[in-house]
Amino acid sequence: MKKQLSSVDLHYLVEELQALKGSRIDKIYNPEKNLVVFSFYKTNEGKNLLKIHVGQSIFLSEEKDDYGDILGFGQLLRKHLDGYFLTEIGQIEPERIAKFEFKSKNEKKHLYIELFGKGNAILCDESDVIINALEHHEFKDRMIKPKIKYKYLVMEYNIFDLDKKNLADLLANSKKETVVICLAVELGLGGIYSEEACMLAGIDKNKNPKDTEGNEISSILSSVKKIIGKKIEPEVILQEDTPIDAVPFHFEHYKNYQKKSFSSFSEALSFFYAHFKEIKETEFDKKMRGLQRIIEEQKTAILNLKEEEIESREKGELVYHKYNLIKEILDEVNKASKKYSWKEIKEKLKEHKIIKEINEKERKVVVEVD
Fold it and tell me: Residue 18, exposed/middle/buried by CB under 10 A (0-12, 13-18, 19+)?
């Protein structure tokens, strides 16, 4: 089974998803930890559902499931992106990272979807400072947590901007035993695309990469460029009527397999992954999902409390530093209240430089100090 989209899969998918640009976010769902669903609305085109399985796949879907509860990260996305327009969709080449740019009248925000490893979803401001992420990490080379600039590791060689010298260097210095593994791992082409590249180049995939010669390197380069420049003609590959892969174009590697054609790569991916849905959720799965929801809600509550703590501390420090001024104002208002009604006090102080609001019913005074 295709566990994750490859960099080349993402390349073709991003090309297809350009049709979503200009759409407004209608709703956001997060029914499971690693599933985020955006409902987009576009004038004269109606609604589109974009399913994001973090760490696995992204595709447009026709399915209109009852998504039920929304977890903490989904609530965060609603808070920051509700009503925003999708203005850009791209790939951080050659990585398996999709970038979505959202815009309101006054600000932009970026959402990065990482499809490698266990995956992640990272919401950033316009300057790529992290607002929050589905998963927080502290690695040797980078950190994923709020208020830190979002960074990602970049492969040494870019399959979308590859020349003969780069490829020759890669093969000559490869630590892998075969060409196909070298292309799949060290170039980041992915398993099935590396198989296809060797087949198109007419070379033995099991050949030691250090033994490749000039004409073979040229053939490999040509096949890689063909792979990333194909016309989208999506297919799901079947074996005994069971889907085993979803590809964006016809593969020589799969020429003898049964196939099912689709009008878009999203449709092919939706069909492929739908086949592997569990037919029945066990009691254990239900309990785990319930516990996961509780954990996410508690994480959100803790984050909100931390934000409130910081805000309260800042307010307390400001009151401490402006204590004499605030006390003087309160004394003045209390003294006036013995002589005038609150309505009269409000009228007299409406042009006051520091007192910004007076609530007659609750007898509260709002002041602005800095």
Answer: exposed
Q: Is 179 helix (H, G, I), strand (E, B) or coil?
A: helix
Give 247-253's long-range contacts (Cβ < 8 A, gap of 24+). 247/192, 248/8, 248/9, 248/12, 248/13, 249/12, 251/192, 251/196, 252/196, 252/199, 252/200, 253/192, 253/195, 253/196, 253/199
Report the C-alpha gap between 336 and 352 in whole angstroms. 14
Number of neighbours of residue 220 by Cβ within 10 angstroms: 29
Pairwise CA distance, residues 282 & 279, whole Å: 10
In the structure encoding, which two tokens stand for residue 98, read together?
Answer: 């999709």
Name which of 18, 7, 19 is nearest 248 in CA terms. 7
Give the pairing type, strands 24-32 and 46-53.
Answer: unpaired
Q: What's the mean per-residue pLDDT of the chain?
A: 87
**pLDDT tens profile 296-330:** 556 666 766 766 777 777 777 766 777 777 777 77
CA atoms within 13 A on the CB side of 223: 23
DSSP string of 69-125, one letter each residue: S--HHHHHHHHHHTT-EEEEEEE-TTSSEEEEEEE-SS-EEEEEEE-STT-EEEEEE
Taking the CA of residue 137 as centre, how many other CA atoms within 13 Å lie in the half-sphere pointing to its CB? Answer: 17
Residues 6+ apart with CB under 8 A from 201: 216, 219, 220, 222, 223
What amino acid occupies position 269?
A: L
Residue among 126, 96, 56, 77 at smallest CA distance from 272 = 56
| Residue in 142, 123, 126, 124 with CA at minimum distance from that of residue 134 | 123
pTM value? 0.74
The Cα 183–Cα 4 span in angstroms is 17
End-to-end CA distance of the chain: 60
Contact 268, 13 (CB under 8 A): no
Return the closest-CA partner of residue 25 out of 100, 128, 127: 100
Q: Which tens digit of pLDDT belongs to each residue from 209-227?
A: 999 999 999 999 999 999 9
User: Residue 14 phi/psi, 5° resolution?
Assistant: -60, -40
d(CA 313, CA 114): 35
- Residue 39's pLDDT is what? 93
For residues 73 and 32, give the distance between their C-alpha atoms in angstroms, rounded to a whole number.
10
